[in-house]
Design goal:
Rossmann fold, 274 residues, 46% helix, 7-stranded parallel β-sheet, alpha/beta, 2 domains
Length: 274
């Protein structure tokens, strides 16, 4: 057995040592899982998102201590283009470069199309789609100059298929896949790749809360809510984990993925295979 292959990242050569990354929407959930995965591979990381200031400070400190990398935080509002651009400039100033950009920030609202609030539509497109454009636009010049960069957009199974009552979310995620392809084509000769990761349902504390709330509201056992409601369309009948999403992002940033660009990687338990 090759023992090196099972050694922890801290005990072997780390794939992203010396690189730096921004992960939007990374103070919890999927984004934090991605930030941890990148830090474990040696990347300095800028976190971004909302939350309790003390909790964010603890998270930042814990990541830096555990993985021995620099960890910064930006409170940039992803719905504000000027704040998105400023976040990229700040990361470049602190780290010297932005080598990896992970656009993960997102919000959701569910309602029938005729009742869908116009303000919610605008907010979802601003955060789930336009923020990725503004961050990419700001980060690309530096990546092109250095001849290396990795852009990963966290889309969704809903980038490929639709569900009722999610008009803005589905529209935004479909558009993210189109944006990813355009960026990949434009940067193909510059050593910069652009790909999308499309999760199905991912277990996070927020999802756990939703499970418990629905079980109480409908007086249905928790396991039935998971299998017959949330995972109804997911053939493997289990949630993906934030660690699995993080590992997928790390792979897309690795040397082994150097010629993978313009792709959408489904991490959805077979949902979109049907």
């Amino acid at each position: 057995m090759n023992m090196q292959s099972i050694q922890p990242a801290t005990a072997r050569s780390r794939a992203l040592a010396g690189r730096s990354a921004i992960v939007t929407g990374s103070t919890s959930g999927i984004g934090l899982g991605i930030a941890r995965a990148l830090a474990a591979e040696g990347a300095s990381v800028m976190l971004n998102g909302f939350g309790d200031a003390d909790d964010i400070a603890r998270t930042r400190g814990a990541l830096a201590e555990e993985f021995g990398v620099r960890v910064c935080y930006s409170d940039a509002d992803m719905s504000k283009p000027e704040q998105v651009a400023a976040m990229v400039r700040t990361a470049e100033a602190k780290f010297g470069s932005v080598d990896v950009l992970v656009n993960n920030a997102g919000i959701q609202h569910v309602a029938p199309i005729e009742e869908f609030p116009a303000g919610k539509w605008d907010a979802i497109l601003a955060i789930n789609l336009s923020s990725a454009f503004h961050a990419i636009r700001a980060a690309v010049p530096g990546m092109k100059t250095r001849g290396w960069g990795r852009i990963v957009n966290v889309a969704s199974a809903h980038g490929h298929v639709a569900s009722p009552f999610k008009s803005a979310y589905v529209a935004a995620k479909h558009a993210v896949l189109g944006l990813t392809k355009v960026v990949a084509l434009e940067l193909a000769e510059h050593g910069v790749t652009a790909n999308a990761v499309c999760p199905g349902y991912v277990w996070t504390p927020l999802v756990e809360k939703q499970i418990e709330e629905q079980a109480r509201a409908h007086n249905i056992p928790r396991d039935q809510i998971v299998r017959d409601v949330l995972l109804k369309k997911q053939p493997n009948k289990r949630f993906s984990t934030v660690e699995e999403i993080g590992a997928t992002v790390v792979f897309l940033c690795s040397a082994g993925a150097a010629t993978i660009t313009g792709a959408s990687i489904n991490v959805d338990g077979g949902w979109t295979a049907e």
